[in-house]
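Ticket #4471: structure export looks truncated?
Reporter: QA, pipeline team
Priority: medium

Steps to reproduce: submit the single chain below to the structure queue and open the exported record.
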Amino acid sequence: MSTALRRFEQVSLSRDVLQVIGASMRYAVFFVPLIAVAYGLLFVLDPEVAYRWGFEDGPVEWLGATCLAVSAALFAWTAAVHAKNGLSKFWLTALAVLFLFGAGEEISWGQRVFSFSTPELIAEQNKQGEANIHNLAFFHALNDDGSKKSGLARWVTGERMFSLFWLAFCILLPAAYVSSRFLANRLAAMSMPIVNLSLGVYFLAIYLAAELLVPFITGARGDLGYALMETKETLYSVLFAIIAFDLAQRARTGNHGIYGSDRVVAKA
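Actual output as written to the record:
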């Protein structure tokens, strides 16, 4: 690589990093109050009310399921109308199916709405006796004796795999796209939808805020750990819906890269 091209790469990377930081600061006007209010309600509301809000079929869970369904619809619409090629349509369709699955799982496929019983095969293995996959013993975070899973088993729980997905799709891939022109070329060749990193970083903000609140959410106000977990997952779902809308908008205008145009140049 020539000195001039290397210097151009360094300037381009610095520019892109500054754009990520600047856009993240602008988004903070929306996300910081949202996160603060969502978690703050757990301390302001009566503990029993907060517990019911975050329990099965409560408003928090339904909001999360709705946002996942909206994400699925946006990905499906983008795949059908604005995919730039066959590979792009494949990725977007896969995302639509994945988020539709997540929405159904979140509310146990409407089991308590439509009052249908859990299939016997699933009921035998489901920790909560529900018609869903993520609460099967294999994917549950706890062993039969109530202890937390360890080793490899702790990495195949529903919650952990969900976290690994947003970490990879919304932070690591966009970071690779921004930081390396070589990787940007490879990802562009795969027609991979690239999340706006300025939005993706807020997954970390949601996660870290929840972790910091864990010691304070139990004790005098009772154990609201489950409500905290549901609130965190719903915030993730809201952010996914925003990301799906952002990707749809960029696809609609023909801007498939992160900052309005594909970051693809001659091979690095």
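Status: closed, not a bug. The export was complete when the record was re-opened. Leaving a note from the reviewer for reference: Residues 3-252 form one domain.
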